[in-house]
């Protein structure tokens, strides 16, 4: 049974930092690309960051570029999202997701192109 478990969310003031972690079990993360998405109340789930299997390629949404950094440790089956200079508009539930090679070549920013999802972790940024 595949499980993705996020942690590290919380309440932080604007300008602060948080580091999210997502631990995978039941799959070999070294065979899956990984992504972080977020969903604010009343809004659709949106893409934040992506990292390929060997950490040679990363993509970011323009709204987080330069502030967020995605990384992974395949030995620990874990993906991270370092979030700096947080803004109130970053407030959302953050989800990690894994996609297998069958989605190679497809849009990495589309939630439909991911196989597995975590339960999410809440990030709240106060002004």
Keywords:
48% strand; mainly beta; seven-stranded mixed beta sheet; four-stranded antiparallel beta sheet; globular; single chain; 127 residues
Describe, in plain words, how this protein is organized in 3D:
Helices cover 0% and strands 48% of the residues. The chain has strands spanning 3-7, 10-13, 18-25, 33-39, 46-51, 58-60, 68-73, 78-83, 92-99, 116-117, 121-126. The strands form 2 sheets. Strands 2, 4, 5, 6, 9, 10 and 11 form a 7-stranded mixed sheet that branches. The chain is globular and about 40 Å long. The N and C termini lie far apart (40 Å).
Tell me the β content: over 45%
Low-confidence stretches: none
Helix content: under 10%
Structural class: mainly beta
What's the rounded overall pLDDT mean? 96
Order of helical and strand elements: EEEEEEEEEEE
Largest sheet: 7 strands, mixed
């Amino acid at each position: 049974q595949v499980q993705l478990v996020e942690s590290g969310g919380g309440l932080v003031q604007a300008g602060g930092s948080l580091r999210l972690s997502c631990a995978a079990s039941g799959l070999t993360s070294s065979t899956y690309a990984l992504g972080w998405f977020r969903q604010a109340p009343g809004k659709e789930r949106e893409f934040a960051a992506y990292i390929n299997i060997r950490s040679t390629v990363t993509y970011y949404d323009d709204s987080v570029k330069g502030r967020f950094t995605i990384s992974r440790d395949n030995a620990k089956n874990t993906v991270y999202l370092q979030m700096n200079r947080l803004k109130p508009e970053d407030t959302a539930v953050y989800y990690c997701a894994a996609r297998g090679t069958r989605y190679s070549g497809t849009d990495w920013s589309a939630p439909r192109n991911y196989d597995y999802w975590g339960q999410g972790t809440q990030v709240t940024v106060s002004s």
